[in-house]
Known about the structure:
Residues 741-769 are annotated as: Disordered. Pfam families: FAD_binding_3, Oxidored_FMN. InterPro entries: Aldolase_TIM, FAD-bd, FAD/NAD-bd_sf, OxRdtase_FMN_N, YqjM-like. Residues 397-730 form the NADH:flavin oxidoreductase/NADH oxidase N-terminal domain. By secondary structure, the chain is of the alpha/beta class. 37% of the residues lie in helices and 20% in strands. Strands 5, 6, 10, 11, 12, 13, 14 and 15 form an eight-stranded mixed β-sheet that branches. Strands 20-21-22-25-26-27-28-29 form an eight-stranded parallel barrel, surrounded by seven helices. The chain has a six-stranded mixed β-sheet with strand order 8-2-1-9-17-16, with helices on both faces.
Amino acid sequence: MAGAVTVAPPPREHLRVAVVGGGPGGLYAAALLKRLDPAREITVWERNAPDDTFGFGVVLSDETLGGIQHADPVVYEALRDEFVRWDDIDIVHRNIRHTSGGHGFAALGRRRLLEILHERCRSLGVELRFRTQAPDTARLSESYDLVVAADGVHSATREAYAQVFRPRVTTHRCRYIWLAADFPFEAFRFEIAETEHGVMQLHGYPYAADASTVIVEMREEVWEAAGFAESDVRESVERCAKIFADALGGRALRSNKSAWTAFRTVVNERWSHDNVVLLGDAAHTAHFSIGSGTKLAVEDALALAACLEEQPSLDAALTAYEEERRPVVASTQRAARASLEWFENLGLYLDQPARQFAFNLLTRSRRVTHDNLRLRDARFTESVEREFGCPPGTPPMFTPFRLRGLTLRNRVVVSPMDMYSAVDGVPGDFHLVHLGARALGGAGLVMTEMVCVSAEGRITPGCAGLYTGQQADSWRRITDFVHAQAPGAAIGVQLGHSGRKGSTKLMWEGIDEPLEEGNWPLVAASPLPYKPRNQTPHELTRAQLADIREQFTSAARRADRCGFDLLELHCAHGYLLSGFLSPLTNRRTDAYGGPLENRLRFPLEVFDALRAVWPEDRPMTVRISATDWADGGTTADDAVTIARAFAAHGADAIDVSTGQVLAEEQPEYGRSYQTPYADRIRNETGIPVIAVGAISSWDDVNSLLLAGRTDLCALARPHLYDPHWTLHAAAEQGYTGPGVSWPAPYRAGSRRPQTGRTDAPKPRLTLGS
């Protein structure tokens, strides 16, 4: 436009940057920041000598290397010349080795990595101060424009500003020691040793043509029983070499500042304060079993450098850095937590079939799944499928499963979901369409919402019941539709009583909020309101317990006449029977309160009453909350005891959920976050389980089943998003066998529609050479 004036942006100031810590993350951040602006004054403080380093080899992913290649080709070329690469993972257990290929690893010595970064920093003009303690952070903050705290898991910077960063440090249950061997493993090797003191494991991988990293790990109690607590490093190294002599070929191990330690997970609520920012292990840690520490630190450096380049101010850059990295780190930490807990609980899986054990180990973090493992190594995956019992061409989710006289055609369950759409407890057309659509959608078992055993046992005025003949007639209409129009689908009823969580609004009007009017009296194990604004329930007397038990049995008789294929007793989520099980909601001093044995008494009495009237050939399951997600509440150990008790009384499977017992709970959400509880119950007790909780894909279902972590998978929200989720899972996997069938009117839609093209994201930071 004529007369327009283009105003140039103000010149960017050249930052003075202090980097505390000379590990890979700090050094790479210094190099990138200097390369982006050579006028920057950048100083790195490292209290150790240049060649001092803990550990031996470092593994980097192709994704991380791609970021390095785009951001600094000089560093990438130097690293590429040093890398040892391999594709295989060997898993050795009980003298059987299984090899899975196609994984793609690259590693080099940690010392060599530091040398490369030292050279790059010096060539760019970064000042490196070794054997020098960094000045106090407050002084650095005053003297420099930016302070990058890359001072590791024991970060003094983080502790100096703990009131701002608010770190949470969790120490885990295994001890490990970082060693090396003077020969290269042919693959990433996991070896299990079952000793007189307990199970131990070796993690090993090559990092040079003549050397491998070797990490030996075991539970704390095994470490103590084996006498390692009293052994010095030399003795520990020699003993580890003897225990894993087969893996090492009789060779010795060596140490480098090695010591037995317990892994600590570091999480910070904030990563920056004024001009101080945390990077790498100072900000977050992730267990070594997924090889992520150096990877995360390097990726932090890339993101920090890019944000400083892109944002108009330092404050905006540090905010953008944390916003970009926090979800990535959280995802990695969830995967690392799943991996480390798998190794903590390794003893649960020792008796699994050999190939299933190997598959379980490979998929422990949930990052590697059945589908991508099949792409990496089809031969190995097919051998695991055959051992599991999959007919040729049949995904694990489409194999049948038997509970008493009921054979489910596949392993998919539509999880119970409250619809809050009944009138006076009567399910109507909505329920017919809702449950009928999901039965037509291919699931092996469709569960009703919690069906209440009395009007006073409803959660909301919209909850369905089974305490009148009219309600039973309406349910019969639904079961008849499922059996006639969706042959092969089973339908189950979940019976429950709201307890202290009753007389509340419909979910979309205010979940767990008390009704404005029309309230009914509540009963519970103890007179404790769910939330301060909720009604205080009456503590049940023995006579009232008997009345409620009869309400359950009457509902079960009606359920039988309705033609339901399975009955589930709801003992979870803080409702009446769950309220008896949790020590946080059961404060009784009679025979129904106190120790877990007493708290189990009433739920077991109800279960026994139901089992007595429910047909012998039809299965019964029990849903439990395996943890309250609160201090002093139900624990995973309690959940195992609870599951065993119900199984001893005739439960055919345990439906393993968690939480919703207390309003102030603090769940650890994430993909498949509840499945470890089902996994533990199944593999510690041998009781069939139904896993539930953020299982979102058919790949998750196949992975969990094939690893032996569950027998059935219950999905809720995916079935709200897509009523035909199971049919679509079959179509996407090219499966057309007996485990699922398209209704005749829908067969024309059984092929997946074509989709448009999507382009991959561009590299995070690209610089010229």
